[in-house]
């Protein structure tokens, strides 16, 4: 396993690719990098060029920045290879793949306590971002119908979430002409609060979006308390504001590790939930899910019936043609793991997160913002006034010397003066790897502590890390 990976800057590359003489014949023409050459090449040579170039990518097992899954069973790899050509949209040609997608929706609806798991609506998507777009559209359309029914304007919809929201919701608001209302987070409460929600909503609010697993810290926002505050608001004012839970990460964690937590369709005000199959659903990249509490929560006019490739089918995804293999991998995981298997995998990841967070909290220069008790994600900051010789960005760069990708980034605008580091523990990141990370972290800190003067800091723009 490689223990070194440097950050490379983008530089001007030669116009021609270098060739390996063991693969290419002497009379092969030069290979342009930025345009198609006149003739093709043999498949082994094309493979070797791409294979050699991606060898410079980081080691996925050492990438503690991403939530996206990087490992599956060999049997899943085999199934993936057998199914990569299946088009999820073509339900007439691939009826069993379509049936398996439907089963997965029913399993998730049941897992999230839908009152009608066998009758509600849901769909697979290319990821949680697409699922969030669909959820937001359903909220907006429902609000528009309500406003028109009582003769009011539909000109100024808004949507409410915390300032720590994932960037997809900013995109939704921008793309679909909805005013985003950010409830500021604070050091004491770095998440969406009921009081904050009540201060932001009005008759033009299409919905409230709490996050089950905040990207920055991994903590759950208090869905039940927010729902209770909105229930009380409706009782006083008649204003009925629905909730969509962005459970991109927590949707595959809370049912197994915190089954007593009330956050899902047990709350009637929760109309829809999204989750990422390719995060803690334990599937390779390219899969998200959205499920509505009941079919009536999805407006009928968002569902299209199309005649395509010999069949008549309903569709309400934003994408049309898309891979079906990841859906099959999700069903494979449901069969392979069952409830106890998912519990074992997620609990092992949480144990590793807690081990690391506890060890880091004992280092005198750091203090935790979260410890991995919700989803297996934790973050920490430098203790105020500890040193002016180095910062967490320096530590992040130093860890790359050992191959680790551990991001440092500022908190949202209301806490942008606070820089944190975050670790995402995923399936495959074992306790053995955690010990190696901890050793390298201590060595990196030791090097920074030994400096005679401050580290030079290039003036580079820093943006929030929101994977």
From TrEMBL:
Membrane-crossing segments per the record: none
Alphabetized UniProt keyword annotations: Decarboxylase, Lyase, Pyridoxal phosphate
Record field: catalytic activity: L-glutamate + H(+) = 4-aminobutanoate + CO2
Any coiled-coil regions, as ranges: none
Top-rank taxon: Bacteria
Pfam families: Pyridoxal_deC
EC number of the protein: 4.1.1.15
Matches recorded under Gene3D superfamilies: 3.90.1150.160, 4.10.280.50, Type I PLP-dependent aspartate aminotransferase-like (Major domain)
Name of this protein: Glutamate decarboxylase
Organism expressing this protein natively: Sulfobacillus thermotolerans
Taxonomic lineage: Bacteria, Bacillati, Bacillota, Clostridia, Eubacteriales
């Amino acid at each position: 396993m490689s223990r070194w990976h440097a950050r490379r800057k983008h530089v001007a590359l030669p116009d021609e690719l270098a060739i390996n003489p063991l693969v290419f014949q002497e009379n092969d023409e030069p290979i342009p990098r930025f345009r198609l050459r006149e003739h093709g090449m043999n498949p082994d040579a094309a493979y070797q060029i791409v294979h050699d170039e991606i060898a410079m990518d980081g080691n996925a097992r050492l990438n503690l920045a991403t939530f996206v899954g990087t490992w599956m069973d060999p049997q899943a790899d085999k199934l993936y290879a057998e199914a990569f050509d299946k088009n999820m949209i073509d339900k007439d040609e691939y009826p069993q793949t379509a049936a398996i997608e439907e089963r997965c929706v029913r399993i998730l609806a049941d897992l999230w306590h839908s009152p009608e798991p066998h009758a509600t609506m849901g769909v697979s998507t290319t990821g949680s971002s697409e699922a969030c777009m669909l959820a937001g559209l359903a909220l907006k359309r429902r609000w528009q119908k309500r406003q028109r029914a009582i003769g009011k304007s539909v000109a100024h919809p808004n949507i409410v979430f915390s300032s720590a929201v994932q960037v997809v919701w900013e995109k939704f608001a921008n793309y679909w002409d909805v005013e985003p209302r950010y409830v500021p987070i604070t050091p004491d409460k770095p998440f969406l609060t009921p009081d904050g929600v009540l201060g932001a909503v009005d008759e033009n609010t299409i919905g409230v979006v709490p996050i089950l697993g905040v990207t920055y810290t991994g903590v759950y926002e208090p869905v039940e308390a927010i729902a209770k505050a909105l229930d009380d608001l409706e009782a006083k004012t008649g204003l009925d504001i629905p909730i969509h839970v962005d459970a991109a990460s927590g949707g595959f964690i809370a049912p197994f590790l915190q089954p007593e937590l009330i956050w899902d369709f047990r709350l009637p005000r929760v109309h829809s939930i999204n989750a990422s199959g390719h995060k803690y659903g334990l599937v390779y990249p390219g899969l998200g899910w959205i499920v509505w509490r009941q079919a009536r929560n999805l407006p009928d006019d968002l569902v299209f019936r199309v005649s395509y490739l010999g069949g008549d089918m309903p569709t309400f995804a934003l994408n049309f043609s898309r891979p079906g293999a990841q859906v099959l991998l999700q069903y494979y995981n449901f069969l392979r793991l069952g409830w106890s298997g998912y519990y074992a995998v997620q609990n092992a990841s949480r144990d590793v997160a807690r081990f690391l967070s506890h060890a880091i909290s004992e280092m005198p220069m750091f203090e935790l913002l979260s410890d991995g008790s919700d989803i297996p994600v934790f973050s920490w900051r430098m203790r105020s006034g500890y040193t002016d010789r180095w910062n967490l960005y320096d530590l992040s760069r130093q860890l790359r010397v050992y191959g680790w990708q551990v991001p440092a980034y500022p908190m949202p605008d209301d806490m942008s003066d606070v820089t944190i580091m975050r670790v995402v523990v995923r399936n495959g990141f074992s306790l053995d790897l955690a010990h190696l990370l901890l050793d390298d972290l201590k060595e990196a800190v030791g090097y920074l502590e030994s400096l005679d003067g401050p580290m030079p800091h290039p003036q580079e723009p820093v943006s929030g890390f929101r994977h």
